[in-house]
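ERR on first pass: missing label on line 2. Operator R.T. fixed the label and resubmitted. Corrected input:
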Amino acid sequence: MPPALRPAARVVVPVALSLAAALALTGCTDKPTATAGSTAAGGSSGPITVTATDTTCELSATTAKAGTVTFAVTNSGSKVNEFYLYAEGDRIVSEVENITPGLSRELKVEVTEPGTFTTSCKPGMVGDGIRGTFTVTGTAVKGSADSKVAKAITDYRAFVASEADEFVENTEAFVTAVKAGDVAGAKSLYAQARHPWEAIEPVAESFGDLDPKIDGREDVIADGLAFTGYHRLEKDLWKDGLQKDSSAIADRLLADVTEIAARSKTVEPTALSIATGAKALLDEVATGKITGEEERYSHTDLWDFDGNLEGSRQALAVLRPVIAERDPALQKALDARFTELSKLLSQHKTGAQYASYTALSDADLKALTVALDALSEQVSKVPGVVEAR
Amino acid sequence: MSDEGLSRRRLLGVSGTAAVAGVVAGATTAGALAQRGNAVSRGDEATAAGAPTSTAATAPALDAPIPFRGEHQAGIVTPAQDRLHFVALDVVTKDRVQLQQLLEDWTRAAERMTAGAEAAPGGLVGGGPNRAPEDTGEAFGLPASGLTITIGYGPSLFDDRFGLASRRPAALQDLPAFTGDQLDPRRTRGDLCIQACANDPQVAVHAVRNLVRLGFGVVAVRWSQLGFGRTSSTSTTQATPRNLFGFKDGTNNVKAEEPEGLAQHVWVAPQDEPHGGAWMAGGSYLVARRIRMHIEVWDRTSLQEQEDVIGRDKKEGAPLGQSKEFDTPDFSRKGPDGGPAIPVNAHVRLAHESQLGGIRILRRGYNFTDGSDGVGHLDAGLFFVAYMRNPGKQFVPMQRALAKADVLNEYIEHNGSAVFACPPGLGDGEHWGKALFG
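pass 2 clean. output:
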């Protein structure tokens, strides 16, 4: 972004423009009012009136106490107007749009933290609008969701720990089969062994040194690193046959998995990291599984798909009380979209076995993609809902 | 102060725009637009303030906004912009309420974007660091660029899924098969369409991208088409452009400045749809055809053959045997060899209203090139878009005549096809779902 577009630089310009427009339209004006005409304390005693014209934005008060602040916005101008309350960095705290000329609309805002905010009327919907400073005083209001957030974090750590243990157990069984030269047995254990990994991948991936050793694909291994781990054994089992060093690779895999499982239990997540992890898991599906790239020899991509989806669902399940309180409509949409995609995915499952990726038709892939897009779009809204306020 | 004069001129200039476009805007929107000037941009600051415009009341500036609301949808008689992103979508939900809500959300976002604003308030960064931005951002700071967003409904939308069967306009029927059609199912039909036209391709693509994003879970893209150069003029203020055959195209188009022609050939009249499709009054039907041109073969064809195929001379665009582009074609005129100057199978003859019982349509097509076809030939052609009052009475007989005899068929192949009912324009406070669902 060019420096000229930084917020500090753009505040003044629209006012100058607006003034010119006012002169052009009315021919005269003796009081060039650009922003708030009053600084009287508002607090929670009745709404703060905002009178917006094409060139001005007047507030009856520019301070309020933390809590519920109500703005009554009247558009006395000729352009469609909007009113914004911004926190630092132009983050929208709340806004009311499409206020047509002559119309009044009310905006109720929960301001939980004291601080300096910015108000803006935006005649014509474009530009930075006519801005003013707005101060919120008093003490922070604790949201009732806070204790729910703490519980969500505890629950998620328990989930990660249980998946990590399962990952070690499954890997032990898989490694044993590889070392015994039992190709059929190892193949039958492979997809299931990886499933817990796929469910907690964003947590495990935070250990950047171990992730490529366990889950690196041949084409994305960085220079200087050997091709080891699950995908190396996948290639041996499905393509090249077991190699002289397959056993050593298996031993190494188990050691790496044991270590990453232990480390995963030490991660201290936040509500935000859980939510972004839930989204990251779906991104994994979109870029690696639905394309058939992840399991290019075994074609067990739908197992990984299921693991990612389950991990995402569990992450959002622990956040459910927070989301349901702050954005019930989003929770409803999440439930509906998870159900849709799970149902669609289960159509490719017979008993406990997922179909090979190669068995999917173009129409199957499109249907899965459509449902995944629908879910991901909703999941991408969760971080903004659960972030600290 | 000097700014005063500039602002006043700007106001006049944009009012002129609305008049030229032939769009009756609601007072609110017109008022809002009038003061916004010619250089409005998303989130701008360097817009009108620092960029005085000196245009008088003439043709619209290429970057000016086009009013979104009015008697008819914008993007039909609006002077054809240079760029197109067209998308056909299927509804993937069975929930009527979700579709209604999407049409309302689309209306809101479309109105914002055509004004040069972000798709949602504060869409670029206003959600803060942890949210995915509501606007995708690639058009931020760009002017409105004449963006129009036009919606249409395909015949398949009126099946039993959404309770719309009784509201299906009688004239909305799937097109019949035509001789020589090579239709690819992946480029055919659709429950809905969005036509986004702008003078900046990034603005058109941004509009479609953001509308598609709003629709995830409710609609899914069935096919889409980019167009990079208009092949028709829809206003007498525009010069006739050339298609990829190198010929002027759409000389005889129905134009914005012909109200009686529009009423007769383009806009659905109330008496056309006395029953469930009454909501279409003031709307128009869109026929889209993806016409692949065998460019390499055409380019090896002699000038004489090319002109005989089209029926016009290549440089001026005059009917063969005549001298000016806008001369009325004289189909009885003899050439030097004693035969007709305009051959009997020439495109211009077969497509002319005099040969089709007075049928005319409003063409609004675009050149396209979708890269190459894998054997070294351009995958290029004409994305034919036309608006009309009744496809069965206008496009169908016209295309039947062309498919049967047009020598141009040796050089083209129709591989995509769709028809959509484009509802009338929106008044203040209305959204697209209202007319459709009643």
